[in-house]
Design brief:
By secondary structure, this protein is α/β, with parallel strands linked by helices. It contains 7 helices and 6 strands; from the N terminus they run H-E-H-H-E-H-H-E-H-E-E-H-E. Strand 5, helix 7 and strand 6 (167-175) form a beta-alpha-beta unit. The longest helix has 17 residues, at 39-55.
C-alpha cells in the first residue's frame, strides 16, 4: 500500500486489510457493501482492521475521516460505504470520526474503467477542506473502501493537507 502512494503526498503510514483481485472473495464483499446495502460488512471490516492497528506499533491517529461521496451519489445510494468502515475503525480504536472535515464539491465519473492518467484527471480538485474543519495539529486517518491507482485518495489527501501541521495516515479495506 505504501509503495502505491510513496512520493505522491506526505503520509505517516498506509495500510489495507486485504489484497483485491478480480472475481475474488474480497471483490464480492466490497460489491455487497457498496451496491447491495450490506453496510454491516463495512463496520465489521473496520472493526477488524481497527483491532489489528491497536495491536500494531503504528502511531494512533487523533481522528478518522471517511472519503466523502458527492452528495447526489450518497443520496442515490443511501449511504457512504466508507463511513461504515470508518465507524468500525472508530469503535475498535476509540477515536472519533470527523464526518464533516472534507467535502466533495463536484461529482466525478466512475473510476472503474479508467486508466491511471484518466483517473488522476477525473478527480482533480473535487475535494475541499471545510472552513470549520478543526484538523489543524491532528493525526488524521483517511479511509476508503479500495485503493486502485490511489488517485481519489491523493485528491482527498491534497485537500486535507491544507490544514496546519497535519499528519496523515491512510487505511482501506483493500488494495489492488
Amino acid at each position: 500500500m505504501e509503495r502505491h502512494l510513496q512520493g505522491r503526498f506526505p503520509f505517516q503510514s498506509a495500510v489495507a486489510l486485504y489484497y483485491f483481485s478480480k472475481e475474488g472473495g474480497v471483490q464480492n464483499l466490497l460489491h455487497e457493501l457498496k451496491y447491495k446495502g450490506k453496510t454491516e460488512i463495512g463496520f465489521f471490516l473496520g472493526e477488524t482492521l481497527g483491532k489489528k492497528l491497536a495491536e500494531s506499533d503504528l502511531a494512533k491517529p487523533d481522528v478518522i475521516v471517511a472519503l466523502p461521496l458527492f452528495w447526489k451519489k450518497e443520496k442515490q445510494r443511501g449511504y457512504n460505504q466508507s463511513k461504515y468502515f470508518a465507524e468500525g475503525l472508530s469503535a475498535a480504536l476509540q477515536i472519533p470520526v470527523a464526518s464533516n472535515a472534507v467535502e466533495r464539491i463536484r461529482d466525478s465519473e466512475s473510476q472503474t474503467r479508467k486508466n491511471r492518467f484518466d483517473r488522476i484527471e477525473n478527480v482533480e480538485h473535487i475535494f475541499q477542506l471545510k472552513e470549520n474543519h478543526q484538523m489543524d495539529n491532528k493525526h488524521v486517518l483517511l479511509v476508503d473502501d479500495v485503493l486502485t491507482t490511489g488517485a481519489t485518495i491523493e485528491a482527498c489527501a491534497d485537500a486535507l493537507l491544507k490544514a496546519n501541521n497535519i499528519k496523515l495516515s491512510i487505511a482501506t479495506i483493500a488494495v489492488a
